Amino acid sequence: MSTTKKLALMIAALYLSGFALAGELDVATGGATVTINGITYTGKNISVNGNRVVVDGVEQTVPLAGPVSVVVNGNATSVETAAGRVQVTGNVGSVRTMSGLVESGDINGDVTTMSGDVSCKIHTGNVKTVSGNIR
Q: What is the rounded radius of gyration, in angstroms, for the C-alpha atoms of the chain?
């Protein structure tokens, strides 16, 4: 596939996904802490919808603004985000992001990113990126 076609597909996917700076995020953990844009939350299920953070079903009082940066301090079952950097200090089952760098210990499932590098110790699933490096 040509670089031009890859770029066109990436732009179309971002447009159709409703890409926004503070977009969609779902993190499933076993109670690990998750830092989103410098604010740390603890819970089993942490999500971002628009500019709202929800932890285990309870909406948090601090709204998000700007690009989302996520650090999971421990292990996570899965991380899904529309855009932004994803760092898991432990291991993760699977990661999906439209645009952003993915860094983790071991990844025991699939990793999919449209635009961004993937860096991990060991991965046992499939790793796919349209525009990025896999290390």
A: 14
* pLDDT at residue 51 in the model: 81
What are the tokens at 94?
A: 């699977």
Please name the residue that has the structure tokens 């089952």: 93
Tokens of 76: 């996570």
Dihedral of the CA atoms 55, 29, 99, 104 (nearest 10)?
A: 140
Residues of the chain with pLDDT under 50: 8, 12-22
The predicted structure's pLDDT at residue 129: 85
Give the predicted TM-score (pTM) of the model.
Answer: 0.75
Q: Where are the beta strands (DSSP E) in the chain?
A: 25-29, 33-36, 39-42, 45-49, 52-55, 58-59, 69-73, 76-83, 85-88, 92-99, 102-104, 111-115, 118-119, 127-131
CB-side neighbour CA atoms (13 Å) of 113: 26
**Beta partners for residue 103, in sequence order:** 87, 119
Residues 79 and 92 sit within 8 Å (Cβ to Cβ): yes
